[in-house]
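Internal QA ticket QA-208
Title: Verify multi-chain structure generation after dependency bump
Assignee: T.L.

Test input:
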Amino acid sequence: MAEQREKVAVIGSGQIGKSWALLFSSAGFQVCLHDNDSAQLSNVLEDLKGQLMTLTSQGLSRGKLDPEEQLKHVTLTDNLAECVKDAGVIMEAVPEVMEVKKKVFEQVDDVMKDDAILSSSTSSMLPSVLSADLKHRQQFLVMHPVNPPFHVRAVELVPAPWTSGDVMQRSRALMVRLGQAPVVMKKEIEGFVLNRMQFAILGESWRLLKEGVVGVDGINKAVWSGLGPRYAFLGPFQVGHLNGPGIKTYLDKYGPTILRLQSSMGPAGLMGGELAEEVEREMIKEVPLDRLAERRRWREVRIAHLSKLKRDIDLQEKKEIEEGKLEPLP
Amino acid sequence: MAEQREKVAVIGSGQIGKSWALLFSSAGFQVCLHDNDSAQLSNVLEDLKGQLMTLTSQGLSRGKLDPEEQLKHVTLTDNLAECVKDAGVIMEAVPEVMEVKKKVFEQVDDVMKDDAILSSSTSSMLPSVLSADLKHRQQFLVMHPVNPPFHVRAVELVPAPWTSGDVMQRSRALMVRLGQAPVVMKKEIEGFVLNRMQFAILGESWRLLKEGVVGVDGINKAVWSGLGPRYAFLGPFQVGHLNGPGIKTYLDKYGPTILRLQSSMGPAGLMGGELAEEVEREMIKEVPLDRLAERRRWREVRIAHLSKLKRDIDLQEKKEIEEGKLEPLP
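Actual output:
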């Protein structure tokens, strides 16, 4: 007798929708993938199979099923109500256009199970705005993945003011089960967490560039050859905790300096205009516009290898702990 | 006949001094390592040998020499003048205390070759302050490495207003020859580049924490499982260039949002006090203070593996380009 799999509805068959389908099916869920555009759906299974084969051949796959087996648990449909009505989890991943998303949620609202999780993959829209008029707005949250989600584990979980605590907890557990790293927010804020941090780095970069302190290449290099390698393994408070020693010592020591530096240059001002053109000229010397797609694959390959490296080291560490060679941290 | 090796004087035999000694000797330089404290010097060669053996056994060493052979080119002395007088490059790495550093530079100033590069490893002092009174101040700059320098390639090159262009160019070439990634600054600024960017991330983290948007764990996770993996390979303008598509499109698109977000919360305020204690309580649950040293080794192992991973992928890419399978970027 076939086991009863939990059902997930994924709405939208673009890159993010396909990534969710891969992640959920790898973790043993039954996935229904919906798209309005039947033509778009016709290539989805081939595409997913190709991705899974590549991952498997590189030793980067996550699940225990072989690709053929796994994809038996992905069904496709252009009928939204069919897809959604008995799903315990509904993952919206349609284009980043407010009206398009809102229309989907209205339709889903009428047919979804009362206790289902209803999630948007938006990177920029506030959950309160997306869900204000829904009957099921307590079931609603944003789960924002980072590209490429199969290799970058962070997913931001953003509640609206009315999202139930139970939905947040279940969503968190769900992401852990998929092997993702849930960044659970306590309340919504524009830019969420990741983009705000990214913008903070970009803002400081822009300031340094504008003030003529360092060039485009130097700014990039400071990150990929300096800060990036540590941030691949540790967050800002973890770094401070190690260096302090202890995060309190660190913050007490650098707090006044940081405050002074932040006040010293004033706001970054609007990015864009002539300086942005200058930056683009520099960047095009490195990667011409017609080779960006290729360079994105370059990035994806490296991030995938880093993801595997981290997993391999963690497994090795787990083994050493089990063998009593290493004392686990609390 | 023995080949004539270029001579480097490294002043100070702490972690940074030893790292410089390793890097320069790996690259084929003759290194003279100086410390006032002869007792401290007695263990240096054993320590360097241990580090080199570990690196070699893990396939992480850089040079082509075996450890014994390489260390034949490192000599130790407690005589500063002897060490410095015929060196083409002088790397100061004494404790981060202004008066201690200034005293070293005064002594060096009297005996150094007129065309030698005179460099401080300081992470926080401005080169103009350190070198103002030196006869050889045109030869002076800061070269600030990032821990651990053998695996994190970034080195910030910071000129004083009077540092000669020739010294900056030679210093840059020197770092490239060591296999480091020089971040060449055009003028000095407090915090240099890396720390300013690190402080920008930390400032935003503090703000998000203070506003109750997300907890300590969420902030750390957003970085190590989200932003970090991309920053391990790409700087902020490179990320924007890929996502834009093109950095100008990216900056034009997000510029207004970034400006608005930056203005929306006001300054971060002084870090420290009660909230810092709360952060410390959280962090201690993860890593108790008496296990920080162990956790630093945990970090170092991971960063070393990432460094090797990057090198291996780059070598593979180079091979594919040589075989005509891949078209090089400009």
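Spot checks passed. Chain B has a mean pLDDT of 93.
Status: verified.
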